[in-house]
Write a structure and sequence with these properties.
A five-stranded antiparallel β-sheet has the order 1-8-3-6-9. It has helices at 76-79, 90-102, 109-125, 134-145, 153-159, 164-175, 179-197, 202-208, 214-225, and strands at residues 3-7, 14-16, 21-28, 31-35, 38-42, 46-50, 56-60, 65-71, 85-87. With 235 residues, the protein is of the alpha+beta class. Helix content is 44%, strand content 20%. α2 runs antiparallel to α3 (109-125) and α7 packs across α9 (214-225). The protein is globular and about 50 Å long. A hairpin with a 2-residue loop joins β4 (31-35) and β5.
Length: 235
């Protein structure tokens, strides 16, 4: 059994166990996980590993979306992880986003098989030893808690007790992109999830992801995805 799926969860804490491994990759939003001795949040650009027969608890906002990989095997570098959360490479993140696009329609078995082969190769090459600076992790949690507010460098650096220069350097070092680029990605992914899975008007979605002007939001959305918001809208 090797299977990709897009899933959502509820804000009510659930718990279960299964006899296969599972990897959870947030594509919009945050999931709160408990796996063995680990308890914490998993954000975009991170992965949580649930090994076979490990009881795990989870909850997330109903609008959040996740790529979940069910698999009977995992490479050694992933099985040996402790704690079970790691930051994924930019290459693997882009591939996860590609998988998301493919899962919006039925996938031929051969294509799914090819996708999984490439996924396994990227997972095997994934560096998992580097730990994210706790102050940057706190900043990520602040960002994901509320994307509707500005989140300036000044405010974020102050809240995590760093100078603006230290914050910008550490953020780029640990996340692989600037804070502004990361914020834009999170806002656009949230907007896409809301457009795709709810009937919320575009102007309200713009506000929920931090844009006071719907036209500014639409321009940014088109620049990010290559097409306007109405392509994903249910309205």
């Amino acid at each position: 059994m090797k299977h990709f799926s897009i899933r959502s969860y509820t804000k009510r804490l659930s718990s279960h166990i299964h006899n296969y491994h599972q990897l959870v990759f947030p594509i919009y939003g945050t999931i709160d996980m408990t796996v063995n001795n680990f308890h914490g949040s998993v954000n975009i650009g991170e992965c949580i590993v649930i090994q076979a027969n490990q009881r795990h608890g989870f909850k997330a906002h109903h609008e959040a979306r996740f790529i979940v990989v069910d698999t009977p095997t995992l490479p050694e570098n992933i099985l040996e992880l402790n704690p079970p959360k790691f930051r994924i490479s930019s290459t693997l993140l882009r591939f996860i986003q590609f998988i998301e696009e493919q899962l919006t329609q039925p996938i031929p078995d051969q294509l799914q098989h090819s996708m999984y082969q490439l996924f396994e190769q990227l997972l095997t090459q994934q560096a998992t030893h580097a730990k994210i600076d706790k102050r940057i992790e706190n900043a990520l949690n602040i960002i994901h808690k509320n994307l509707s507010i500005p989140h300036s460098i000044n405010d974020l650096s102050r809240q995590v007790h760093l100078s603006q220069t230290q914050f910008k350097v550490l953020f780029k070092e640990h996340i692989g992109t600037t804070c502004h680029q990361y914020l834009t990605q999170c806002r656009m992914e949230k907007a896409k999830a809301l457009l795709t899975n709810t009937d919320t008007p575009v102007n309200l979605i713009a506000e929920q992801v931090g844009y006071t002007s719907p036209s500014s939001f639409s321009r940014q959305y088109k620049a990010f995805f290559g097409h306007p918001p109405k392509r994903h809208s249910q309205n």
